[in-house]
TrEMBL record:
Family: Belongs to the oxygen-dependent FAD-linked oxidoreductase family.
Keyword Flavoprotein carried by entry: yes
Protein name per Swiss-Prot or TrEMBL: FAD-binding PCMH-type domain-containing protein
Cofactor requirement: FAD
UniProt lineage: Eukaryota, Viridiplantae, Streptophyta, Embryophyta, Tracheophyta
Organism: Oryza sativa subsp. indica
Length: 504
């Protein structure tokens, strides 16, 4: 059902009446297009055919978010929140339903991206519109002995990242980013501004990993910062298929999830090459010894290892090099994206047989091939109970991200790369988690299914959503739906994969 034009007009009038000029961008505004495109990261969703919002509200104050939600509820126009715009399916700024008007509340415009670091209290208040790079920069500006276990990519937005759990190179030592949320402020479907005490522990549980866009709009997060040593060590070593990369991958699956939790060793598999990347929270000698002990076949030497500060390691993995200035962390990359991409994810519970890696090499030779990123879990991840937060995949050995990317426009190129990623994902099915086949909500994948109204029947809508809901959240899905029924029974905050209210 389309939002009638008068509803949209009423909504826009409401915004104009309740928000200062300069905060609301409509199709009539000269900078509408540049504001909309300011954080689009995937060219797939920046085409003339992509349904666009009737307005973008560049919120710089909690009252702007409250007003946008109240106008939206009052006039039947849904609002999507956008923090960093990295959603893999673009759900923070596009809708698949071309007939229904929607608006975007963007958090990146000003005060809602502030970062305040309290070194003595080992905490920070961070606006949802900040990027993880801005968080790392602000911490490093005050101290070299605290850090935050955030994303590898520094341009990722805090709002979406924490909403889906969020992991990076310190996950084996410190778990998910959302495990370190101490408090939060948010606007709910009634337009109320709530903190942790006011929202209650059920909703506070749900917003720390239950997926972005489901329960309201989170404005800011109080984060616990984690201690980092004065010196950390990194390495990147490449081993090609004909340098026994197959055997190394087979062994890596057993070794990486059970290394000491100070050691993180991921693999990027591309072309006919495995790139082993490590961050070690300690000195070179410690990393060389840990590798010699657990994984001598990888043959890591002292000359492979580089000592640096923690924030330099963030720059090293973000930009693949040493000596980069920390200010690079502040670059949000607001230009037009440079690529089309599609990603999918899996969890592995048992080491895969060696022949699977042989098959993978042949997939990586195909026209249209992308890459695989293997992130090991274990350590702190495995110590947290799967129901403690919405993120359920705590016991996995590792996560696989399949990533296809291309720069040629046109349907033929898209079909080729989509075909590759769906093909390799299909091939892996026997070897990955089952019943349900797990997926990481922050690597959003609409192939897993999309919401519909279930003909208006709440039970049908809920049943449909369980298919992808259980992939992302396993047994936590039902509790998320119960929280949704309590805090947003009319399902105001919704998108193609949002959590429907649990039918009574
Ligand atoms: P975006 O603004 O698109 O929001 C994502 C979703 O959350 C949308 O549904 C949106 O409506 C909702 N949302 C946004 N702001 C909200 C708010 N304030 N309150 C409530 N809901 C909100 N992941 C990871 O775990 N580790 C990593 O290292 C990386 N690295 C990485 C690099 C790159 C280049 C990309 C494109 C993505 C990643 N990711 C990642 C995935 C990333 O965690 C995921 O895309 C996040 O949802 C992005 O959050 P943004 O705020 O940027 O996205």
């Amino acid at each position: 059902a389309a939002a009638p034009a008068n509803q949209t007009a009423g909504f826009l009038d409401c915004l104009a009446a309740s928000l200062p000029a300069g905060v609301v961008y409509t199709h009539a505004s000269r900078s509408y297009q540049s504001v909309l495109e300011s954080s689009i990261k995937n060219l797939l969703f920046d085409t003339p055919a992509t349904p666009t919002p009737v307005a973008v509200v560049e919120a710089t104050d909690a009252s702007h978010v409250q007003a946008a939600v109240r106008c939206g509820v009052g006039h039947g126009v849904s609002v999507r929140s956008r923090s960093g715009g990295h959603d893999y399916e673009g759900l923070s700024y596009r809708s698949l339903d071309a007939a229904r008007a929607f608006a975007v509340v963007d958090m990146a415009g000003g005060a809602l991206r502030a970062v305040r670091v309290d070194v003595r209290g080992r905490a920070a208040w961070v606006g949802s519109g900040a990027t993880l790079g801005e968080v790392y920069y602000a911490i490093a500006n005050k101290t070299s002995r605290l850090g935050f276990p955030g994303s590898v990519g520094p341009t990722v937005g805090v709002g979406g990242f924490l909403s889906g759990g969020g992991f990076g190179l310190m996950l084996r030592k410190h778990g998910l980013a959302s495990d370190h949320v101490l408090d939060a402020t948010m606007v709910d479907a009634k337009g109320r501004l709530l903190d942790r005490a006011a929202m209650g522990e059920d909703l506070f549980w749900a917003i720390r990993g239950g997926g972005g866009g489901n329960f309201g709009i989170v404005l800011s997060w109080k984060l616990r910062l984690v201690p980092v040593p004065a010196t950390v060590t990194v390495f990147t070593v490449h081993r090609s298929r004909n340098q026994s990369a197959t055997d190394l991958l087979a062994k890596w699956q057993r070794v990486a999830p059970s290394l000491p939790s100070d050691a993180f060793l991921r693999v990027v598999v591309q072309n006919q090459n495995a790139q082993f990347e490590s961050l070690y929270l300690g000195t070179r000698a410690g990393l060389v010894a840990a590798m010699a002990d657990a994984f001598p076949e990888l043959n890591v030497t002292a000359s492979d290892c580089i000592e640096m500060t923690w924030v330099q390691s963030v720059l090293y993995f973000a930009f693949y090099g040493t000596g980069k200035p920390p200010e690079m962390l502040l670059d949000r990359g607001t230009g037009r994206p440079d690529r089309y991409f599609k990603a999918k994810s899996d969890y592995v519970q048992e080491p895969m047989p060696s022949q699977v890696w042989e098959t993978t090499w042949s997939w990586l030779l195909k026209d249209g091939a992308g890459l695989l990123i293997l992130d090991p879990y274990g350590g702190e991840m495995a110590r947290v109970a799967p129901a403690a937060t919405p993120f359920p995949h705590r016991q996995a050995l590792y996560n696989i991200q399949y990533y296809g990317f291309w720069s040629e426009s046109g349907e033929a190129a898209a079909a080729k790369h989509m075909g590759w990623i769906r093909g390799v994902y299909g091939e892996m099915e026997p070897y990955v988690s089952k019943n349900p086949r797990g997926a990481y909500v922050n690597y959003r994948d609409l192939d897993l299914g999309v919401n519909d109204d279930g003909g208006g029947v709440a039970r049908a809508r809920y049943e449909k959503a369980t298919v992808w809901g259980r992939a992302y959240f396993k047994a936590n899905f039902e509790r998320l739906a119960a929280v949704k029924a309590k805090v947003d029974p009319d399902n105001y905050f919704k998108n193609e994969q949002s959590i429907p209210p649990l039918p009574s």
